[in-house]
Amino acid sequence: MFLPKKMVVPQEERWGIYSLDLDSSKVELLFSSDTQISFLDLNHAGDAVVFSQESNDDGEESEEIFSLQLSDGIAYQLTDNEYRDVYPVWSPDDQQIAYLSWRSTTMGIYLIDVDGGNERVLYDSEYHDADLDWEDRILFTRNSQVWIMDTDGSNVHPVTNAPHVGEESNMNVPFGDYDPRLKPNGSQILFSRLVDDGSLHGNYDFFLIDTDGASETRLTDSGFSQGIAQWSTDGDMIVYSVAAIDDEGKYDIYLMDSDGSNNHSITPEYFPETFLCYCPAFFMDNEKIIFIGEWWE
Question: What is the Cα–Cα distance from 36 to 93, expressed in whole angstroms?
C-alpha cells in the first residue's frame, strides 16, 4: 500500500527565506543564514527579494541590505557601512531599492540602485522615519502616523490621525498607526493600529483608508498582536503575521479577503511550534507565499 510522504519543514541554519504553496501546503527553503533576517520584499517581476540581515556578530548595529536571486539562491550584499540599514522595498520598476538608515540621531529614507551603486538620501524628517512601502508613491510612518510622499521626496504629508496618537503605551511603540501598504490600484492604504496595550505583546488591528485620508474603515477587531501585511497582486487578498494571541506567542501566517472577511490561519499543521514565521508576501501568481522562518532555540 502506498503511503504519502510526511511533509517536513527543511532546515539548515537558524534563519531562512521560505516559500509556501497555498494549495498543497508544501514549503521550500530558498535561502538559509545563521544571522538574523528581519524583513523582506519581493520584486514586481517575482524573481528576486531584498532583505535586511545582520552581517556579523554585532547584532542589529551590523544590519545591511541584501538582494537574493531566487533562480540561484545567491545573496548579494548591497550596503556595507557602519550604520544600521533596514526595511528595504523595491521601486515599481525594480531598478532601485528604498531603505531606512540610522546615520544620525534618527532614521532617514535612502535609495540605492539594484547593483548596489548610487547610494543617496531621499528624505530625512529628523524624526524616526519607518515602515516603508513603494508603489506609485512612497508610504512610511512618522510620529506614529502614516505619511505619504511623491517618489522624489516632495509633497510629504500625513494621512492618518489615530485616537491617542503618540501617547505612551506599555509596548516599545506609542499608540498610533504603523506598517502602511498601498493597494495595487493605488486607491487605499492598509495599515495596523495599536488599539490597546493590555496584553503582553500589544493589541493591533488592521484598517483601510483612502490615500487622501478619507473613509477610514476597520477590517479586524481581534486585537491580536499582528502586522507586516501585504496585498495580493490583484488586491483581493491580504496576508499577514500574527505574533501573539492574548499573551500566547504564535508567529503564524494569516490570510483574509480585502474587506476583512474569510480571516483565517494558513499555517500548515505540520509546522513545528519552534518554527516561527515572519513577513509573508504573495508571489506574482498569488498561489504561493514567501516568508522568513526562524528556528527558535
Answer: 28
The yes-or-no verdict on residue 1 having pLDDT over 50 is no
C-beta neighbour count of 234 within 10 angstroms: 11
Model pLDDT for residues 64-94, shown as the tens digit of each residue: 999 999 999 999 999 998 889 999 999 999 9
Residue 250 class from Cβ within 10 Å (0-12 exposed, 13-18 middle, 19+ buried)? Answer: buried
d(CA 269, CA 252): 11
Give the three-state DSSP class for 59.
helix
Mean pLDDT of 186-212: 94
Q: How far apart are CA 9 and CA 14, in angstroms?
A: 12
Which residues make Cβ contacts (< 8 Å) with residue 266, sequence separation at least 6?
20, 22, 239, 253, 254, 255, 289
Question: Phi and psi of 57, rounded to 5°?
Answer: -85, 10
Q: Output the pTM of the full model.
A: 0.94
* Alpha-carbon distances of 232 from 190, 229, 259, 281, rounded to whole Å: 12, 10, 13, 8
Handedness of CA 131, 134, 135, 137 (dihedral sign): positive
Residue 23 C-alpha cell reads as: 494549495
